[in-house]
Amino acid sequence: MVTQFMDKETFCAHILEYESAMYRAARSILNNPEDVEDAVQEAICSAFAHRGDLRDPQRFKPWLLRIVVNTCYETCRKQKKVIDLGQVEGVLEAPDADPTEAISLWQAVLELPESLRAAVTLFYYEDCTVAQIAQILNISQGAVKLRLNRGRARLRTILNED
After folding, report:
1. Model's pTM, two decimal places?
2. What is the pLDDT of residue 84?
3. How buried is residue 119: exposed, middle or buried, by Cβ count under 10 Å (0-12/13-18/19+)?
4. CATH topology of domain 1-82
């Protein structure tokens, strides 16, 4: 089977088209904005290097998001051994919460556990199908449906608390 090699201009056009999707997917997994930027940049470089592996150009978005998700998980694995002092500082000090401040839906999504957050972000913000999410996250479609159901229930709880 001969694979079609995507030229640089087409690749760049696709990257610009899906830039916000990549950042949202990365943000749903990683908490640090600098890590999100690094992961997206690394994923773009990796996708460019392996663009010849893409068999169906129509499947560029799920293929690219899968690379972003894998890069984010790799970042998480690397960081497990590192303790960020900024995170410890936040635990030691009690934040001055403003009870009049309403929580936005995106803030509520960011409060979800990572596994639920990734599925919810891909489904609702990126309009991916359950099958595409299963492929991107490398889980079964049943697991995607379960995570979406649990994510919606958790979001209702979070939003009703505020």
Report:
1. 0.61
2. 53
3. buried
4. Rna Polymerase Sigma Factor; Chain: A (1.10.1740)
